[in-house]
Design brief:
InterPro entries: HTH-type_LysR_regulators, LysR_subst-bd. Helices cover about 30% and strands about 25% of the residues. The protein has about 180 residues and is of the alpha+beta class. Strands 1, 2, 5, 6 and 7 form a 5-stranded antiparallel β-sheet that branches. The protein has a two-stranded parallel ribbon with strand order 3-4.
Length: about 180
Amino acid sequence: MDVEETLSFDLVRQLREGAATVGVCWDNVDLQGLQHRPYRQDRLALAVHRDHPLAGEVSLRFDQTLEHEHVGLLPSTAVHTMLRRAAASAGKTVSYRVIVSSFDAAIRVVAAGLGISVVPVEVAATYRPVLGIKVVPLTDAWAQRRFIVCFKNFDALQPAAQRMVDYLASRAQRPSTAKS
């Protein structure tokens, strides 16, 4: 089995073309011609330095963060595109101080006090006790993300791939325990 990280819309294209067999992606893509099963959910939140003005907030809308400098992911990522669209809907733009290649790097830059970043709650919760960052949930509807396991035809998958799909789908039954 080969595991490769790619954007959701690229994964869906690869599944349709037969270049990939099974994938996990965000459910906001066009799934026409594919079968899928629920996998996981996450919620996006704002990671801030403990001394940042937004650190005391209980929750925020994304547009309330736009007057602050952000730490963002690469422009080719779905999260970057989503944030750009959300800012545009509010008639604003995101001011990026730093662009990084991963959530891990974004949180480390936040911990250094160089900006704020939109990251999954579960990822931020891992770093919160170690780096002392604050995690403020976003209340925007798009901040709740659903992921799915997708494939062309379950019955046509090799037995090992079917077992993997079943295993991943069974993980959807387990609730997240991450806390902000």
